[in-house]
Amino acid sequence: MDEYLSEKEQIERLRQWLAENGRSIATGLLLGLAAVAALWWWRPYRDHQLAEASGAYAELVDAADAGRRDKAIELAKKLDDYWRTPYGMQGALVLARMYMDTDEPEPAAEQLQKVVNEAHDDELVQIARLRLARVRLYQQQADEALKIIGTDNPGKFAPLYHEARGDILYALKRNDEARAEYEQALATLDPALADRTLLEMKLNDVAAAPPPDAAADAGS
User: What is the pLDDT at residue 150?
Assistant: First the structure.
């Protein structure tokens, strides 16, 4: 009899607990079902967006390579609608390359700055910053290029950053600093990322260059 009463007490307690907590349980179940439904909907949507963005990006690369400027610009604008995918920022890099191929450094710089400001992929940011510094150097804005390239040497891009910094410092006639950067580039070089022969030529050139003061005296 005591056991029976104990079971009745347990059932009563369970009823009371359900009365007090049933609403929150139901809410939790509904939220869980909603999350599952959202995930079920999101995955096909994401895959569809990626497929469309990938197709537009491939068309953009083809258009840029073929010199179809207007088509490339149109496709790059289309990729702006897919900013949640990686293709939008990669499209800006392609467009920047196309502009440099047609000797239009300023619109190229605008595209690269967009990637620096907006990309969520750190590697894309580092690539864009490196290219932007080179564009500014091409425009004979060496001081601005040096600000852009900064003093950090990001991971696998370190040799490229050292090389670019060497080019900029050489343009500024800071030959000793340029030599040090080229030496660092050679010391950390990955052959897949940079040309060792070209780097050695740059190092030889800067080593053979007369000091800025001597060059100025020779010209006077």
Answer: 93
Long-range contacts of 143-152 (CB under 8 A, 24+ apart): 143/172, 146/172
**Residue 7: inside a domain, yes or no?**
no
pLDDT in tens, 86-108: 788 899 999 999 999 999 999 99
Beta carbons of 168 and 145 less than 8 angstroms apart: yes
Q: Which residues of 171-195 are buried (b: 16+ CB within 10 A; e: fewer)?
A: bbebbebbbbbbbbbbebbeeeebe
In a domain, 164, yes or no: yes
Burial label for 25, CB within 10 Å (0-12, 13-18, 19+), is: exposed
Its pTM surpasses 0.90 = no
CATH code of 93's domain:
1.25.40.10
Q: Which residue has the tokens 């003093």?
A: 151
pLDDT digits (tens, 9 = 90+) for 23-42: 665 565 555 545 554 444 44
The boundaries of the domain holding residue 172 are 50-210
The rounded Cα 46 to chain-centroid distance in angstroms is 21
> What total number of domains does the chain contain?
1
Q: Is residue 45 part of a domain?
A: no
Look at residue 182 and give its three-state secondary structure: helix
What is the rounded CA–CA span in Å between residue 16 and residue 120?
51
The answer to whether residue 13 sits within a structural domain is no
- Pick the closest to residue 115 from 140, 154, 86 (CA basis): 86
Task: Give pLDDT tens digits for 36-89.
Answer: 544 444 455 455 556 788 888 889 899 999 989 999 999 988 888 776 677 888
